[in-house]
């Protein structure tokens, strides 16, 4: 599917194929090469690295132009990436971009995010991959001003690459474009989501629960973290890895369990 003189760009998200953030992402990256979109047919937010195992997946091509082809899939973001690799592209894409997510995926939110998981799946398959998110949760969120940021990051990754197993988590603060201070390369802030299950009663008297909560940042003053950067109007870029092994603990445990 890839033309000889153009990169092949795989685009996906977790907000669904018709999301405004996806339209902005496609518009930002199509100048770099041939774009193939494989995205969920409806919102799959919070699905993390989930796969669809108990129901069939249905794939449908919904747009085809000279430089952009769009498919929708009845699955998760990771389903979409795997489907693209196995049934659509015919070769590895040059780069995978995911988003632009409607809402933050900074710090621990990256663990739960389908947007970030799609980029992680790309990295697992040795594809240069980037997840983009916008901290503006409003219905009329401005994704257009993020396009230059997307272009800058994509151009850099296409030119300079990423180390094997590494992918980028890019978050853009909720602020007016003129207030952006720049881009900061950060580490992921330490903290925890404090979940609260709000109990409600439906019209027939049955109880149900709605998940709410807040993020408790353990290090709000740490200027090298993504949470600090975003609070201070910087775009945060955190290099992530799918490698979860704690190598220091391997050494410590090996010493304790030595036979």
Key structural traits:
259 residues, alpha/beta, two-stranded antiparallel sheet, globular
By DSSP (H or I, 4+ residues per run), the number of helices equals: 7
Order of helices and strands: EHEEEHEHHEHEEEEHEH
Alpha-beta classification: alpha/beta
Main β sheet profile: 9 strands, mixed
Which strand order does the major sheet show? 3-4-2-1-5-6-7-11-8
Q: Roughly how many Å apart are the termini?
A: 54 Å
Helical content band:
25-40%
Number of strands: 11
Radius of gyration: 19 Å
Fraction in beta strands: 25-35%
Tell the overall outline.
globular
pLDDT < 50 runs, ≥5 residues: none
Q: What is the residue-averaged pLDDT? A: 95
Account of the 3D structure:
- The protein is 26% helix and 31% strand.
- With 259 residues, the protein is an alpha/beta fold.
- The strands form two sheets. A nine-stranded mixed beta sheet has the order 3-4-2-1-5-6-7-11-8, sandwiched between helices. A two-stranded antiparallel ribbon has the order 9-10.
- Helix 1 (20-29) links the parallel strand 1 and strand 2.
- The chain starts with 7 loop residues before the first strand and ends with a helix.
- The mean pLDDT is 95.
């Amino acid at each position: 599917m890839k033309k000889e003189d153009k990169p092949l760009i795989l685009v996906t998200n977790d907000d669904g194929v018709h999301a405004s953030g996806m339209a902005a992402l496609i518009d930002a990256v199509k100048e770099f090469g041939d774009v193939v979109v494989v995205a969920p047919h409806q919102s799959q937010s919070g699905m993390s690295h989930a796969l669809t195992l108990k129901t069939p997946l249905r794939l449908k091509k919904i747009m085809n132009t000279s430089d952009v082809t769009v498919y929708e899939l009845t699955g998760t973001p990771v389903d979409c990436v795997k489907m693209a690799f196995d049934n659509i592209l015919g070769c590895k894409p040059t780069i995978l971009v995911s988003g632009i997510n409607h809402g933050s995926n900074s710090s621990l939110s990256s663990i739960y995010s389908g947007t970030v998981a799609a980029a992680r799946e790309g990295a697992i398959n040795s594809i240069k991959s980037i997840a983009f998110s916008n901290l503006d949760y409003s219905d009329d969120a401005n994704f257009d001003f993020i396009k230059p940021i997307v272009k800058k990051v994509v151009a850099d990754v296409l030119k300079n690459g990423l180390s094997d197993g590494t992918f980028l988590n890019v978050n853009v603060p909720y602020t007016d474009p003129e207030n952006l201070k720049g881009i900061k390369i950060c580490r992921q802030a330490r903290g925890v989501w404090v979940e609260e299950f709000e109990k409600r009663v439906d019209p027939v008297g049955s109880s149900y629960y709605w998940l709410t909560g807040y993020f408790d940042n353990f290090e709000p003053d740490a200027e090298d973290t993504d949470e600090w950067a975003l609070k201070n109007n910087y775009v945060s870029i955190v290099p992530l890895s799918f490698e979860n092994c704690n190598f220091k603990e391997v050494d410590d445990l090996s010493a304790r369990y030595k036979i």
